[in-house]
Write a structure and sequence with these properties.
The protein is mainly α. It has five helices and two strands, in the order H-H-H-H-E-E-H. 69% of the residues lie in helices and 11% in strands.
Amino acid sequence: ECLSAFEGLYEQLLGTGMSHGHIADCAHVVAAVGMLADDEAVQGDALLDMMEELLGTPRADLQWFFMNVETTVGPSRERLVRTRTEQEAKTLRASLAQELYGTFFSW
């Protein structure tokens, strides 16, 4: 039943003029949103690997983003970096999922 529903959706998207590649890109974004939103389903290295595969963002960049906060201060633009707390990282995941989801549908 699920596969049948997906095939129907796929055919409808093709009917709107979307290419196979664009439909696959959309599926990648939807999958990424789902994984980011469910912080218990995929964690740690597995999350980084999946996000790199789905979104094409380098794993090292994602790891730095999820683990660190960077602040620039003063006239010399000194850069301060601190490690995010576990709660901050969870909140960031949820926020990123919401932002991707919102952006996806405003496209």
